[in-house]
Amino acid sequence: MHNADTFGPFLNDSGTCKLHMSRTVREQELVILRMTSLFQSSSVWNRHV
Questions:
Q1: Which residue stretches of 1-49 are H helix?
Q2: What is the DSSP letter of 40?
Q3: 33-43 burial code (b ≥16 CB/10 A, e <16)
Q4: pLDDT 10s digits, 1-41
Q5: What pLDDT score does 7 carry?
């Protein structure tokens, strides 16, 4: 992470949200892949495929 001060709160929130979701690991990956496709985020796509 290039700037922990900027992204630190986001990472904490996203981690907390993920812990409280009632989705399976497979469902979480499908959501991630769908969002990376919609936003054309090739770097995230490459990490999850």
A1: 4-20, 25-38, 42-48
A2: T
A3: eeebeeeeeee
A4: 466 666 666 666 555 556 666 788 898 888 888 888 888 88
A5: 66
Tokens of 45: 């796509």
**Residue type at 1 in one-letter notation:** M
Tokens 């999850």 correspond to what residue? 48
Residue type, 18: K
Please give the model's pTM, rounded to 2 decimal places: 0.54
Residue type, 30: L
Which residues have CB under 8 Å from 41's CB, separation 6+? 35
Q: At 21, give phi and psi (nearest 5°).
A: -75, 145
Degrees, nearest 5: CA angle 38-11-23? 60
